Amino acid sequence: MLNPPKLIGHRGVKNLSPENTLNSIELAHKLGLKWIEIDVKISKDLVPILLHDDTLERTTDGKGLPTDFNYDDLKKLDAGFSFYNYSTNICIPTLKQVLLFCKRNEIGLNIELKSNLGFEKNNVEAIAKLLSNFNFTNQYYFSSFDWPSVILMKKFLPNSYYGLLIDGFSKDISLKNTLDICEKYNFSCCGFNKNIINSDIMNEMKRHNLITTIYSEKNLKPSEANALWSMGVKSIFIDDPKEFKIS
Ligand code: G3P
Ligand code: MG
Hints:
The chain is 33% helix and 19% strand. It is α/β, with parallel strands linked by helices. An eight-stranded parallel β-barrel has the order 1-2-4-5-6-7-8-9, surrounded by six helices. Strand 4 (108-113), helix 5 and strand 5 form a beta-alpha-beta unit. Helix 5 runs parallel beside helix 6. Residues 10, 37, 39, 52, 112, 143, 165, 191, 215, 237 line the site of SN-glycerol-3-phosphate (G3P).
């Protein structure tokens, strides 16, 4: 059964080290986190890489779309400059490099399937291919705000675990259709924005035997995290775990 811990490092530990880089993942591990979350999409030559945004600007010194560049070019970009404000040799890692690090260090993984401006199906195919050729025996699960991506991934990798991400409810996204999809596809969890969680949602999640995870725009304080865990939240995505006692 999927069993993530109370704290999951968000994009590594994104407030302490450049997000979605090996440096950030290594630091998360050093700080005692047992699981990390990463954002994954593909390059032009279909290499699964770690990148949060649609474009390269915010987190690297590159410009444009990742799908316009082969990984050999993407890896030359500085993925540390925008964090430190000086040049670094920190680069965009591949998912394969991260799987190797996690495997060696027994780190659990949440692979978020990011949208990629029309390349979502290609993302899923390339990531599924990598995972099926890689003997990754650690616990991990896929999640996405782009629900078709997780539904498609489940067709390729039926024995992996899955979750939906929900930033807010709308006329297209209700709690009922979220739960219906989880039931239909046998998904294990839902990740909610902290701003929308409440006891009614928690009750429904428990009734459906689903794991609840919470992410937030700002790093949560231990008091806020404790309140969420008391409600029955299983895991919280954390940007900087230093104020927490990690067991
Ligand atoms: O999965 C939790 C969280 O990573 C979702 O938001 O924008 O940080 O990828 P974001
Ligand atoms: Mg993410």
